[in-house]
Fold this protein.
Amino acid sequence: MADLLTIERTLAREIAPAVERGLPGVEVLAVEVLSPRRFCVYVDHPEGVDHALCARVTQLLYQHRRQSIDGLIGDYLIEQAAKKAGTSKDKYLEDELAKRRGAITDADIQKVFDENRDRVGASTVADLKDSITTFITRNRDAQNAAILVGELKKAGAAVKIALDPPRVDVTIAAHDPARGPADAPVTIVEFSEYQCPFCARVTPTLAALRLYQDLIRFHLRDDDRAARPRGPRFA
C-alpha cells in the first residue's frame, strides 16, 4: 500500500470538489497537507466564514477521509484474499459478487419501475428493462461488496482506524437545565429551540434514550433566536 503521506496528498486533491458539492456556495481556495494527519483548508463564502461553516467543512473532511480510508482497507483485504485463493483481485471480486448477486426477476424490475414511475415519462418497463437490470446489478454488487469486506475484516487481523471524528468541547455550567444522575457515564447536550420544527424531529430519539435514564445525563441549551420571539416564553 502507498505510504500515509502519499495517500493524504491524494485525498487532498479530492477534498475541494467534495466540500463544494456538500456545501453549495462555499469555494475552496486551497488545500495544504501539513502532515500525514493534518490538513489546512482555505475556504470562502459570499456571506462570510463563521464557526458554524468551519464546523460543517470539518465534518465533511472527516466523512471524506473516512470513506477513502474504508475504501483503501477494503481494497487491501480483497487483494489479500485473492492472493490466498490463488487468483487476481478482479477475478476474486467478480466471482464473489456473482455468487451473492442472485437472479434479477421480472418482479424486481417492475418494482424499481413502479418506484420511479414519475421519472420515466412515456417509457414502458420493456423500454427500460436493460437499464433497470444494470441499476439493480450495480446496487446489489455495491451492497455485497460491503458485506464481503465486513466478512474479511472479521476473519482477518483486527483493523484499527486512527482517525478521530471531529469533537467540540462543550462547557456545562452548574445551573444548566439537566436531567439524570450527575455521575452518569454518558452526557448528552441538546442544542434546541422551542419553535424550531427541525429541532422537534429529535424528540422521538430522546424519548427512546430515556429508557437508559440511569446511565445518561441530559443537558438542554436553548437557542434564543429573535426570529422566533415566542421561544423564551415557551422556555
Q: What stands out?
A: The chain has a mean pLDDT of 83.
